[in-house]
Design a protein that fits this description.
The protein has a single domain, classed as Up-down Bundle (Growth Hormone, Chain: A), CATH 1.20.1250.20. Helices cover about 80% and strands about 0% of the residues.
Length: about 450
């Protein structure tokens, strides 16, 4: 058994490394595309729309993606997702070279990339339990958090240094190279398929399966209500954060890259601690604190000046961010049978992320047409809130960011007041509680 486990960890790590490379390239492109959109308009709305078109297709297709992941070969789905995302990048590169690139092209590209990246990530997530043993679920969640945080460190730093010299074209070229590395890592690894324990159902039944499963688990429903509420404000904050930094710094691209890299460094440190410790017990505490604690940093960033203060606060806030994702993933991996994870995880994603397009869609227009004008020198809030917060470019958007963060802080702390959420790990048994030996894992 130890020998099989070793192979599983090696396989998981190889795929994970390829995904890390691809994510760095994709995040470099996202950073460069944000700068390109800002150069064209100087407004927050196009940036928030990039986030909107990134989030919406993933939410819309999530139920079907779960069926595909449970029914079809997960390795082939990962290859498909990576390949189509790479093809989309090639199209943008051609349009840029021929001077035909417009914002709407980027909106479509963001949608296509995120859609197929989601299918790829869902396939990888659902394959976790066929590659590693239960005792490593927490570490796998931390590794995924480390992957995201690492991309946050290197992608803005590389893109911020490269963009002034090569523009968008150089960043897109690197993105294509990283797609190739991810494809190679997938070709090298055989991803085991779980043994099907049930006859295939009609697609209508399969779509509803995740809803039925979650509806029978009040604790899982509570988690999803909590995440949906939090994600509304998180997506809105993410959509306007670049505008806050650029407006208040006089369009300092390197400062934006430093802040985002600091976020990544803090996330890496937090993920490393989780990798070593395995996370908090019970894990639900990690989820609640992982949502609440970072908001203190965002509120402070909104209220103070100074680029190094922003960098330090971004780093400190991000140290707690991996705690939420790793804890949440560990709970679901332990509670949901691997044969059902594709459909259940897809429904989980749909319900948890349903609010994110709304947050992204409203954040930019609120900044450009309400908060930002209100805190200019003659704005309606200039003599009230503006008297202590200050007025000028970026101050209204900063106030907006602080309000979103305050709402998220209250949501995180309120989770302790609901028993179904606070005691979810005791109320729901693990999927293998009555089955100490998992035959599908031994066949890996």
């Amino acid at each position: 058994m130890a020998r099989t486990l070793s192979k599983g960890l090696l396989a998981y790590g190889t795929i994970w490394a390829g995904q890390c490379a691809s994510l760095i390239g994709s995040d470099m492109t996202n950073f460069a595309v944000t700068l390109w959109a800002w150069e064209q308009t100087g407004q927050a709305t196009p940036i928030s729309l990039l986030v909107f078109f990134t989030l919406t297709p993933k939410v819309a297709v999530s139920l079907f993606a779960g069926i595909w992941v449970d029914r079809y070969n997960r390795k082939q789905l990962m290859l498909l997702g990576n390949g189509v995302a790479g093809l989309s990048t090639i199209v943008i590169l051609i349009l840029l070279q021929t001077h035909r690139l417009s914002l709407w092209h980027l909106f479509i590209s963001c949608g296509v990339n995120s859609l197929f990246s989601y299918i790829q990530n869902l396939s990888f997530s659902a394959s976790t339990t066929t590659l590693i043993s239960k005792q490593h679920y927490g570490r796998a969640g931390a590794m995924n958090a480390l992957k995201s945080s690492g991309a946050y460190v290197f992608a803005p730093a590389f893109a911020g240094a490269l963009y002034p010299w090569t523009g968008l074209i150089g960043v897109l070229g690197i993105d294509l190279l990283t797609f190739g590395l991810a494809m190679i890592s997938l070709w090298l690894i055989d991803i085991p398929q779980p043994v099907q324990k049930e006859q295939p159902q009609a697609w209508q039944q399969q779509i509803m399966f995740g809803f039925r499963y979650i509806s029978q688990q009040p604790g899982l429903r509570a988690i999803l209500i909590f995440l949906c509420s939090s994600n509304l404000f998180t997506s809105a904050s993410v959509a306007i954060m670049p505008a806050v930094i650029l407006l208040r710094s006089g369009n300092d691209v390197r400062l934006l890259a430093m802040v985002q890299s600091a976020l990544g460094l803090g996330g890496i440190l937090g993920a490393m601690v989780l990798s070593i410790s395995g996370g908090l017990t019970p894990r639900i505490y990690g989820l609640l604190l992982g949502i609440a604690l970072p908001q203190l940093g965002w509120i402070t960033i909104s209220m103070v000046e100074g680029k190094w203060v922003w960098v330090v606060l971004a780093f400190a806030s991000a140290c707690f961010m991996p705690l939420a994702g790793a804890s949440n993933q560990a709970i679901w991996l332990a509670k949901v049978d691997p044969n059902l994870q594709g459909r259940v995880f897809a429904t989980r994603y749909l319900l948890a992320q349903a609010s994110t397009p709304i947050g992204a869609a409203i954040a930019g227009p609120l900044s450009d047409h309400l908060f930002e004008p209100a805190l200019q020198s003659q704005g309606i809030l200039s003599t009230s809130i503006g008297s202590w917060l200050g007025t000028g470019p970026g101050m209204g958007t900063a106030l907006q960011l602080s309000l979103f963060a305050l709402c998220n802080l209250l949501i995180g702390l309120s989770g302790y007041g609901f028993r179904q959420l606070r005691e979810v790990e005791n109320l729901i048994p693990d999927f293998d509680q009555n089955s100490p030996i998992r035959s599908w894992a031994i066949k890996e």
